[in-house]
Amino acid sequence: MAEAQPIVPPLVITPEREGSRPIVQVLHDWIVTVDHKRLGIMYFCYGILALVIGGIEASIMRAQLAVANNHLVSPETFNQMFTMHGTTMIFFAAMPIVFGIANYLTPLMIGARDMAFPRLNAWGFWMTALGGIILYFSFVGGFGLYGAGSAPDVGWFAYAPLTSPAFSVGHSTDYWTIGLLISGFGSIATGLNIMTTVLCMRGPGMKLGRMPMLVWLNSVMAFLVLVAIGPLTAAQLMLLIDRYLGGHFFDTQAGGSAVIWMHFFWIFGHPEVYILVLPAFGILSEVIPVFSRKPIFGYNIMVAATIAIGFISLSVWAHHMFTVGMTSYANAFFVASTAAIAVPTGIKIFNWIGTMWGGKITFTTPMLFSVAAVAQMLIAGLTGIMLASAPFDWQLGNSYFVIAHFHYVILGVIVFGVFAASYYWYPKVTGRMMSETLGKCHFWLFLIGFHVTFDFMHVPGLLGMPRRIYTYEASRGWEGWNLIVSIGVIFQALGVLFWVFNVLKSYFKGKIAGNDPWDAWTLEWSTTSPPPDYNYAELPVVRSRRPLWDLKHPEDPDWKYE
Amino acid sequence: MAAASVTVPQAEMPLSPAMRGKVGMWCLIVAESSIFCIFVVAYLYYAGKSVSGPTPAQVLHVPIFASICLFSSSLTIVLSEKAIHRGNIKQFGIFWFLTLALGVIFLVETGIEWHRLIYNEGLTISTNLFGTTYYSLVGLHAFHVTVGAIGLTIILLFTLFGAVKMEHAGRIGVFAMYWHFVDAIWVVVLSVVYFIAR
Q1: Are A192 and B10 a contacting pair at CB < 8 A?
Q2: Which of A93, A210, A280, B155 could form a disulfide bond with A50, CB atoms 3.0-4.6 angstroms apart?
Q3: Residues in B touching A199 (Cβ below 8 Å)
Q4: Is B172 in contact with B23 (CB distance < 8 Å)?
């Protein structure tokens, strides 16, 4: 029942936007905006741009590794590619996309007119943008200002002593450090903003226990941002002190420790995985119920599992360091905590299946991406449990098995979740539907590409292929597998092209969506598409977890049963 | 389809938009604490691991006067908050100025201490691990005091020009939270640097 009239009427005094204005003025409006919706879109587009750049870097690596003894790129370039790929994808693709979705939807979903601190929100975005620009400036300015560039080549976790002045000459490592430091400030600002918005800006009746799952997951994500970005900031400050002021934090010659950098980095690094994956879980928890025509199964348990993941994720970092060599007590602790985090994650998977069970499922594109993400989360979780076991990790740590495992999480769950979100909320953002035909082409191409690449990537890992090597000898038994892995990239790239084409084409030619094309239940579908600047003329009153269901079905509202 | 006609009592929301400054500051304090936490851990981890002198026991004197000043500034800022809640702007200004003065005294004392360490004791940030961790941890705290002092100065200037009114009590309260946080961190830094890892 996609009705033409919005359920909550917009203000009648809405000024009509002029049809054509000078491009300079339009750009100016976007640059000075403090509107959470525009900032959300800017975060998202910035992230997608970085995703494409990082994807090109990945493609260069895969082209280099496709056959044995290849000399397409030099070892130095290969090192720069994997460093820039990792840094770009985590800090400038995944985080901005996640923040963009949170920015756009959090106020709409809780019935607020904007974030708690709109100007801080804009500041956070521009800090993140500046960080990315500084990182990429290293390509031209890495050795000073004479255009002789060198991107950072120390790996995205920049282990000491590779980053010491002796081993990292020039300024490329400094661009990496300062870029991440600055984007970290932006991230903290955004985390603070999301947290405060969720706590203080909820509309009438929107109790914590009635918030949509995505808002719950975003608020736990925001908590993790506040707790986890600090250690990265501190470690980057220490690295700058070492490099510029002659400090000895990570200088083993003077009694410093290279291992402590690993600890500090992974105290940030592992919660970071959950900063990225929790919003993806939130997207799945919104999309799956709507297309199963059932409320989410076990809302309370889902919230509890989310909070459990948030806390346990702070105590698992050293499972990245089993191969470094720790005491058996430390190994035992981190094996146990890592295995423990599988429990709340498993609860989530069961609850998504429980939501679909007996539902009237329609396989629209967002639902297809979500179902694939649930299945892939299971496989990624299973390889995660394998790697959580220290003796197994001693064999396969730093091999392509690990690469396959975490790409299964990052692509298979996070990127699939982001694609699901893009198809699901595109009508709300632009007022037009995306093409289902193109969407299905995108889905199947990307799914095939993903599985060809990352399913088969486990095999060279099991056969002993270490990560970060720029080439390998024939006769190791790796070359066929690597060729298959590289071929999958072509399908993924094609899928993304379909998606970009779909986004652009639907913006001009898509079917008019109306306010509520999916017959959904959360508040954002009660306002117009795209929402007016102020979101809601009258703040909607919420009495249950599915406020729109209550409005559409006054004879059988949810609040009678909750 | 009757539009939202149900009414829900507003009173069930304990945190209102008016509270967002305080909540935001709490979030900032959490984030800042995690940064300090890592520096404190580094300090403790590296305590006694320097391969050359000088050692903390040889050169550090407990900054009693500076600490008393900084801790007292928490008291004066509370008094200035009380004053602005009563609408007594003059009293607010006096206590606010005292807070700033105490903070500046702390910074000057830190400067004197560092001057002594650098020129008399020969301890710089690159001398040994103790120097590296000492100057970064104490310096990170001093940087936060400096930021706080700049904020105090700006608000003091606004007060002198008559722009601060009783209605700003809430915002003053948010800033005071930051200042209390800076003082509380000094409790940790003081005990770690001058007592625990001496």
Answers
A1: no
A2: A93
A3: 15, 20, 23
A4: no
- All residues of chain B having their beta carbon less than 8 Å from the beta carbon of residue A226 are 27, 30-31, 34
- Cβ of B24 and A192 within 8 Å? yes
Two structure tokens written together for A151: 């991107």
What is the predicted pLDDT for the residue at B184? 97
Residue B139: CB partners within 8 Å, gap ≥ 6? none
What is the pLDDT at residue B9? 47
A32-560 placed in CATH 1.10.460.10: no
pTM: 0.93
Instruction: Give the integer Cα–Cα distance in Å for A294 and A417.
Output: 19
pLDDT at position A539 is 83
In chain A (562 residues long), the average pLDDT of successive 10-residue segments reads 48 56 89 95 97 96 94 92 96 97 96 94 97 92 64 91 88 93 96 96 92 96 97 96 94 92 96 96 97 95 96 95 92 95 95 96 97 96 94 93 96 97 96 96 97 96 94 91 96 96 95 93 92 88 91 88 79
Structure tokens at A534: 């102020």
Dmax over Cα atoms in chain A, in whole Å?
76
Rounded Cα gap, residues B97 and B90, in angstroms? 11
Please report the residues numbered 264 through 293 in chain A whose beta carbons come closer than 8 angstroms to any beta carbon of chain B: 264, 267
Provide the residue type at A352 as one letter.
Answer: W
- Nearest 5°: the CA angle A306, A307, A311 is 120
Quote the pLDDT of residue A494.
Answer: 96
Coil/strand/helix, residue A543 = coil
Write down the ipTM of this complex.
0.92
In total, the C-beta contacts within 8 angstroms joining chain A to chain B are 142
| DSSP sequence for B147-190 | HHHHHHHHHHHHHHTT---GGGHHHHHHHHHHHHHHHHHHHHHH
pLDDT, residue A16, reads: 55
Q: Do A254 and B33 touch (CB under 8 A)?
A: no
The Cα–Cα gap between B185 and A65 comes to: 51
Among residues 190-209 of chain A, which lie with CB inside 8 Å of chain B? 191-193, 195-197, 199-202, 204-205, 207
Query: DSSP character for A432?
Result: B
Instruction: Name the burial class of residue A165, with classes exposed (0-12), middle (13-18) and buried (19+) by CB atoms within 10 angstroms of its CB.
Output: middle
pLDDT tens for chain B, 198 residues: list them.
334 444 444 445 678 888 999 999 999 999 999 999 999 999 999 999 999 989 999 999 999 999 999 999 999 999 999 999 999 999 999 999 999 999 999 999 999 999 999 999 999 999 999 999 999 999 999 999 999 999 999 999 999 999 999 999 999 999 999 999 999 999 999 999 999 988
pLDDT at A3: 44
Within 8 A by CB and 6+ apart from A466, the residues are: A398, A399, A400
The residue to which tokens 């105490």 are assigned: B102
- Does A314 contact B at CB distance below 8 Å? no
Chosen from B5, B20, B25, B26 to mutate, greatest number of chain A CBs within 10 A: B20
Residue B15 CA to residue A493 CA, distance in Å, equals 46
Q: Which has the closest alpha carbon to A41: A314, A358, A422?
A: A422
> What pLDDT, on the 0 to 100 scale, is given for residue A239?
96
Residue A124 sits at the vertex; the CA angle it makes with A126 and A434, to the nearest 5 degrees, is 75
Q: Establish if A226 touches chain B: CB-CB under 8 angstroms.
A: yes
The candidate with the shortest Cα–Cα distance to A392, out of A322, A337, A342, A341, is: A322
Contact A541 B136 (CB under 8 A): no
Measured CA to CA, the distance from residue A368 to residue A290 in angstroms comes to 13
Cα dihedral A265, A267, A269, A272, rounded to 10, equals: -140
Tell me the nearest-neighbour CA distance from A468 into chain B, angstroms. 29
